[in-house]
Amino acid sequence: MQDVIRLLPDAIANQIAAGEVVQRPASVVKELLENSIDAQAKNIQVIIRDAGRTLIQIIDDGGGMSETDARMSFERHATSKIRHADDLFKIRTMGFRGEALASIAAVAQIEMRTRRPSDEIGILLRMEGSELKSQESVACLPGTNILVKNLFFNVPARRNFLKTNSVEMRHILDEFQRVALAHPEISFSLYHNDTEVYNLYAGKLSRRIVDMFGKNYREQLIQCQEETPYVTVRGFVGKPDFARKTRGEQFFFVNERYVKHSYLHHAVLAAYESTISEGSHPFYVLMLDIDPSHIDINIHPTKTEIKFDDERSVYALLMAAIRKAISINHLSHSIDFESNVNFLSPMSGTRTNTAPKPPSFTRDAALAPPLPTSRREETNLSHWEKLFDGFQKPDPTPVQTTLELDDKEDFLEPLPTTLGSRANALNAEDEDIKNRRLAVQIQNRYVVSAVKSGMMLIDQRAAYERVLYDRYLKQLENQNAASQQLLFPATVRLSPANIPMILEMREEITALGFDFDALGPDTLVVRSLPGDLPSDNIQQLFEELCEQLHQSHDELRLNRAETTARTLARRFASRYLVRLSSDEIEKLINQLFISSNPNYTPSGEPIFVILSLDKIANLFKNG
């Protein structure tokens, strides 16, 4: 029988390896930036055209290469980083596999100019599909200038699988940010289609964060520093008030290498416990310095996964360092030992250790006065109750309307509301109250309404998400959204990674009532907003919009209008977690039950539950 196992040609083997190393243009940017850092470059320039499809150019002032090294760098498993197997356990460089340039050359056309500072002339190499096309001497600056043209020119299937330019550029910006944050001592610049996106000067990490993400980050940074014999933790974390609902600005670096580690992220969340709301994610840029012998980064070609020999110790040290930083900045709950917590009990006249309640003008009695220290104070305090005369009596409250859930027509016509004094309400009890159900709000979060079978509990945020979804979807279909014109146009500064995404979705966003234009790679000018959105903090509004679009961007390819409506409804529904009047509660319930699906949100979450009388009775029996 004929032998069937054959050795693959180098060109095919390189293309197979490129499938793991070079997944998209951002992978090329990452690998070439890491090579420039390993070459001890102090200034790195990145030039991109068409989100990396046409051109990716990296220029650095590093050590450069000799003619022989330049040719060898495109061979598989050729590297200057390691010599022996033991070197794998003490890696300090970014690269070590020797696969990056060979994989890139297998799927692109490459020109590389490189020169060492000690040489008079440099070398120019042209590679295409793993083949050396030309090699010649050339005059060039010290360092390396590498151009990657027409990525995936010989693998059409891979090129067709690339996303839109805005998506690919966002991935490039993510990789650029990670490398730039890990090395604030290096100057970086990034240009896309001849437009400057970033120009970052060398400096401290705090300045790099502010230059990259915006001046508003200066107010939220908390320095985190902790040194132990095993690991050193340094960097910055964000104040709890700036925590966001979506992830994206969380950065872990181990020995200046960006890594993804869910276990360490859990340690950060544990440190923020009870200071941020559930489901929120704080901002952090944390550097972990550890002996390379205690970690293993040789897990995946992208080198973003890492293993520790003692993960529990790293977890505990990281959590303790962040908690210490938060407590030092007085952001965690603390006890005021200087305040007087002794108060006179109005019932017994004895001192108690109960903290005072705020004065209530509806049901609760006013605070008891502190102990008098003089005769005059004792006389003045003897009549302190008169200060609250007229306020402690309950005000007449309107009888809230009741909504029958068994007949949908009840929600189409609001029932009349009885307004007036409590006496009028009592007189009308026999005729009105019998046909009504009491609807009340709990903690600005839930709405409780009586129904014939028992009690209905409505999730207020979920109900508004359904109502807003139907409204936005109708506006996108009819292009008739109401908008409010701003008296003065507002300027909004966003991350350069978000501007292309906003502009790509401009048609859908404008249909909802927004009106804006781009002023640069990181600035928008806003002229109008949807009529039902507040205009007090437009910066935060657009940041929330970008967060949610970023989270749902992959789904936008399916149905842009539906996904946009679902995305914005989910984000803006939380803005309606406020105190509602009886009329607003009635309006919400009416709008919910005439919606397309009052039972579930667009994402499939239940909006309300019915507690039957039997179930309520069982709760008391079980209790």
From TrEMBL:
One of its GO terms (molecular function) is mismatched DNA binding. NCBIfam families: mutl. Residues 209-327 form the DNA mismatch repair protein S5 domain. Signal peptide: none annotated. The keyword Signal does not apply. It comes from Runella rosea. InterPro entries: DNA_mismatch_repair_CS, DNA_mismatch_repair_MutL, DNA_mismatch_S5_2-like, HATPase_C_sf, MutL/Mlh/PMS, MutL/Mlh/Pms-like, MutL_C, MutL_C_dimsub. Keywords: DNA damage, DNA repair, Endonuclease, Hydrolase, Nuclease. Residues 439-580 form the MutL C-terminal dimerisation domain. This protein is involved in the repair of mismatches in DNA. It is required for dam-dependent methyl-directed DNA mismatch repair. May act as a 'molecular matchmaker', a protein that promotes the formation of a stable complex between two or more DNA-binding proteins in an ATP-dependent manner without itself being part of a final effector complex. Residues 348-376 are annotated as: Disordered. GO terms for biological process: mismatch repair. Belongs to the DNA mismatch repair MutL/HexB family. This is DNA mismatch repair protein MutL. PROSITE patterns: DNA_MISMATCH_REPAIR_1. It comes from the Bacteria. GO terms for cellular component: mismatch repair complex. PANTHER family: DNA MISMATCH REPAIR PROTEIN MLH, PMS, MUTL (PTHR10073), DNA MISMATCH REPAIR PROTEIN MLH1 (PTHR10073:SF12).
